[in-house]
Description:
The structure is a homodimer of 452-residue chains. Chain A has 452 residues and is α+β, with helices and mostly antiparallel strands. The first copy, chain A, has helices at 15-34, 48-51, 56-62, 83-90, 100-110, 154-169, 181-190, 197-204, 207-221, 226-236, 242-252, 257-275, 339-348, 369-384, 398-407, 418-423, 441-451, and strands spanning 38-39, 45-47, 65-67, 91-95, 118-127, 139-148, 174-180, 281-284, 298-304, 313-318, 332-338, 362-364, 389-391, 412-415, 426-430, 436-439. In chain A, helix 14 links the parallel strand 12 (362-364) and strand 13 (389-391). In chain A, helix 1 runs antiparallel to helix 6, helix 6 (154-169) crosses helix 12 (257-275) and helix 8 (197-204) runs antiparallel to helix 9. Chains A and B meet through helix 1, strand 1, strand 2, strand 3 and helix 4 of A and helix 1, strand 1, strand 2, strand 3 and helix 4 of B.
Amino acid sequence: MSQIGIPKGTRDFLPEQMCRRNYIFDTVREVFHQFGFVEIQTPSMENLSTLMGKYGEEGDRLLFKILNSGNFLEKADLEEPNLNRLAASLCEKGLRYDLTVPFARFVVQHRQDLTMPFKRFQIQPVWRADRPQKGRYREFYQCDADIIGSNSLLNEADLLQMADEVFHRLKIRVQIKVNNRKLLAGIAEYMGCPDRLTEVTVAIDKLDKIGMENVCKEMEERGIAREAIQKALPLFAQQGDVWSQLSEMERLLSGSEVAKKGIVEMRELFGYLEMLSLHNETVMDLTLARGLNYYTGTIMEIKAKDVAMGSISGGGRYDDLTGIFGLKNMSGVGISFGADRIYDVLSESGLFPESDNSSTQVLLVNFGEKELVCTLPLAQRLRQSGFRVEIYPDEVKIGRQFAYADARHIPYVVIVGESEMAEGRFQLKNMSDGSQTCLTEEEIITKLNDLK
Amino acid sequence: MSQIGIPKGTRDFLPEQMCRRNYIFDTVREVFHQFGFVEIQTPSMENLSTLMGKYGEEGDRLLFKILNSGNFLEKADLEEPNLNRLAASLCEKGLRYDLTVPFARFVVQHRQDLTMPFKRFQIQPVWRADRPQKGRYREFYQCDADIIGSNSLLNEADLLQMADEVFHRLKIRVQIKVNNRKLLAGIAEYMGCPDRLTEVTVAIDKLDKIGMENVCKEMEERGIAREAIQKALPLFAQQGDVWSQLSEMERLLSGSEVAKKGIVEMRELFGYLEMLSLHNETVMDLTLARGLNYYTGTIMEIKAKDVAMGSISGGGRYDDLTGIFGLKNMSGVGISFGADRIYDVLSESGLFPESDNSSTQVLLVNFGEKELVCTLPLAQRLRQSGFRVEIYPDEVKIGRQFAYADARHIPYVVIVGESEMAEGRFQLKNMSDGSQTCLTEEEIITKLNDLK
């Protein structure tokens, strides 16, 4: 039995974990539904031609590739032991790396059948051949919601409301940060290095981790002039509410067309947010950059307030995601919830609900065949009344059956013995306080209904 | 765009399909919960050492294998273009082929953490590199429920009740067939060829497809003597209820110990079923064999009555499933629901429910920024009252917004125009009959509540 195990970076989920994971998925799904998002699923495997080149060089390396079936190798393929070249002829399929690229492929492929704007959500696992470490797995679930085919910033407002609502329901206090790539582009222009947007954002992104001093150092190392950095510093040091910050930026970045657009968008979005009463604080954060290159407008990120953890949700607008598959001018905006990190936050804060709505409520004790004549139909009727009911399958000592109920956290045990059968009454034992009452079937149902 | 596509044998699920698939999964899951089964999940990929050799030679061939990451090939691996040998050094992981072998691995690996008897269910996709054809896919979902660690036939009774309940809820009329491998073994003994059980069962299994004459022919071809077959024929031609059939078998198979055991088991199980009132007919069918070699006791199979389709559910008892992973004497019994075939039956019979409980109930028309001051908070409050609500994101002609509501089957549209804002009332348009009423927010909520 020593060799039993699972591939590194993957996980089994035991019943209690599943129950908690489902609590997260169900909450997210319910909120998605409330905002009109519809579910789709895509295959676990995609053609490598769909996946390759979409996630950068590192992404290509981290794709799990699936060996073709059949024996079709040619001598020529084997002249040189180079896995990359060989892999190309060995594999034409790979496992889904995220939900975004398959979604883009899906939209292009099924565009005739979709009602635009199309609001879809997708909760499925993805796979990355990354080095496993604490909190990083090779198989993990993503929960994505995207709207495609609409430029309206109301979509951004919807996504932010959804995030606010999800975390409110999960009782996680969060801070919601919003920025706009167009503002960052404007700042890069203002600094005199519009072509260095990526370097600027990569450095800025680290501000809350390494401090302003080190951010400047990093920019210098990346070849951005000290004067340029000095010029931009006041922007990142701004205080005050979003409106005064945007006015200040309007003044400073008046020479940048893209910054102007960004300011208009931020004003519109924060205008919408002001019309709503959200549970959590939403702030503009100019240092928020988010790594993904395909974002072109609003970007957003959510962190837990009471637990130190990376972002637990994030997203943004991309103007041309389906372009890679030949469908131009299809703007989209999306948000993704990180189920594993949310799990860890709930776990660390003790926020998982005590009870769950899927576990057994009543165990019927098994005294053997004679009593089963009564127990089996009783179980059936209790289920018909909507309860979750088990009969202990084996005729073993009652102590073992109680131990089973305890281990499974079953709150009530019903004892159907000879005397109970004669009387048409049953012993209902409350497992939490050990109390026992003799009740008719109807009385049991009434009692259990109180449990609901 | 011409190259866009997905690997053959895989599928995208569009919103309407997802909704229907979820209807099946939710029904099955709810019934599983009512009988005390708890959910687990295992990784999509298992070590090949876990999977290989568990499904026969063909199964090994049909496993999807995952290419190892990194460049580790040796010249020596490449001397001969033989994929099988190469694959062994290229791959150490494979995709799950079914839910049973991973479950056995799971039980052995986590046995310290499981409460026995352990009743688990699992609803996850599996992958097989089979030739795709109508109704056969390379990625498909299985819905399995198993009880492990209990010999009691009450477990069989539970599984049969569950199947009965699932199909009752789905409104599919079914016939439930039950047999016992021990009876088949007894018959093989009675025929004088106890070592030919597999051949006998394989031939018998085809009885309802090819008829008795051809079954006999097939057995002869497989080297079973004509006299042996003649001897067994009356058993398969039996009429009457399960009790009289079992008595007749008891008489004929009195020389077989294993048959005796099988008869005792069948009497006990049908005794339990008699205590219950099931919605569907449950019959003993001696010709039911089911292919899988690991079954050792009860076997069961369910077919739709009104649609010609293979079995839509099936299962049985296996005495030594975890033995392959070194844990002996762990008897189990399980049932599996075929989501794809159930989907087809529901589809052909028009049995999918019209409405679903996840789609948008109200669309709020978008007239532009001024009205949004009123529309945005209204949408928020309607959601707080539990409704599924969308605001049309773009300010386009009202006709296009209505067309969107129609295409999405949204039953109500709320119109918030200038005059409505002034009055604090809104137009509620019923999309099915086109009627329109001017209502306060409270009246809208009352009206929508009737919809629930």
